Amino acid sequence: MYKRKIVPNLNCGLDLVGEVLYGKWKMRLLWFIDQGHKRPSELQRKIPDASRRVLNLQLKELQDHELVSKVIYPVVPPKVEYSLTAFGKSLIPIIAAIGEWGDNNADRLKELIIKGLSEDGE
């Protein structure tokens, strides 16, 4: 198991949220699980750019932070489903607000991101 070399800074709410939600796909995983996509294969189809390994790692971290729960059904082949805990559901309005802000500022954000990419290549 991976052991962190640097102790995280947990002095304020933003540090704590960053520690729990840091990860490229975590907010999307929470959102899609809330929307009813509960099986790993469904989540993989919703986030095709992410590898199965990375999704599994981030789902495990979300479990460790008690934002999602995992149920393994005793069938062959094994069936796994994820669901949000009450703690995880409390994040959905915040994720929705972040998504809305992104939608409302999409043109500007895309322009700035593209500009930043072209400057990196100089």
Automatic annotation (TrEMBL):
<dbReference type="InterPro" id="IPR036390">
    <property type="entry name" value="WH_DNA-bd_sf"/>
</dbReference>
<dbReference type="InterPro" id="IPR002577">
    <property type="entry name" value="HTH_HxlR"/>
</dbReference>
<keyword id="KW-0805">Transcription regulation</keyword>
<feature type="domain" description="HTH hxlR-type">
    <location>
        <begin position="12"/>
        <end position="110"/>
    </location>
</feature>
<keyword id="KW-0804">Transcription</keyword>
<protein>
    <submittedName>
        <fullName>HTH-type transcriptional regulator YybR</fullName>
    </submittedName>
</protein>
<dbReference type="InterPro" id="IPR036388">
    <property type="entry name" value="WH-like_DNA-bd_sf"/>
</dbReference>
<keyword id="KW-0238">DNA-binding</keyword>
<dbReference type="Pfam" id="PF01638">
    <property type="entry name" value="HxlR"/>
</dbReference>
